[in-house]
Design brief:
six-stranded parallel beta sheet, alpha/beta
C-alpha cells in the first residue's frame, strides 16, 4: 500500500483539523496515512513515502506556527535534495492581514521548490475571512486533487 504523510503546522488546531478531516479520503483512495504534528525533515526524505501533503497555517505577520519552525529551520540548515518529493499544499490564512496572507504556506512552497521538490497541482489557500470551517474548502479540493493527480490506487 502506498504511503502518504500529512505534515501539519498549526497554532490553534485549524490545520490539524483539516489533516484529520482529509485523512479518510486518502485512505479510501488506497493510502496508508500518517499525520505528523511535530514534523521532521526525515518525514519527507525517507524513501518509503510516496506523497506528502502539507497543512500549514500562518501566524503573526506571515510566520510559521511554533510547531513547524524547527522543521523549516532544519530544512534550511540541512538543505537536502528533495527531487523525489511530490507534494500538495493546503495553506490557511486570514486575508485581513494583507500581504502576509497565507505567508507561511507560500514561503514553504518556495522553500520546497528551491530544494527540488515537485508540487502536484495548485496550492490551496483557505481564507478565514471567507471560510468559517477550513475543511469545507479542503475536502472538495482533496477529492479533486486525488482524481486529477491520479492518486487513487484501488
Amino acid at each position: 500500500m502506498p504511503k502518504l504523510n500529512i505534515l501539519v503546522g498549526t497554532m490553534y488546531g485549524g490545520a490539524l483539523d483539516v489533516a484529520e478531516q482529509v485523512k479518510p479520503l486518502f485512505e479510501k483512495a488506497g493510502y496508508t496515512v500518517a499525520i505528523h504534528e511535530q514534523p521532521a525533515v526525515a518525514d519527507i526524505t525517507e524513501s518509503e513515502v510516496d506523497i506528502t501533503l502539507f497543512c500549514v497555517s500562518t501566524t503573526g505577520s506571515g510566520d510559521f506556527p511554533g510547531n513547524f519552525v524547527p522543521f523549516v529551520r532544519h530544512l534550511r540548515d540541512q538543505s537536502p535534495s528533495l527531487v523525489s518529493l511530490r507534494y500538495g499544499l493546503i495553506a490557511l490564512g486570514d486575508s485581513s492581514y494583507g500581504d502576509t496572507f497565507c505567508g507561511a504556506g507560500r514561503a514553504l512552497d518556495a522553500l520546497l521548490e528551491d530544494h527540488g521538490a515537485t508540487r502536484l497541482g495548485e496550492r490551496l489557500e483557505i481564507d478565514a475571512m471567507e471560510t468559517f470551517m477550513a475543511d469545507d474548502a479542503a475536502i472538495p479540493w482533496v477529492e479533486e486533487w486525488i482524481v486529477t493527480q491520479r492518486l487513487e490506487v484501488n
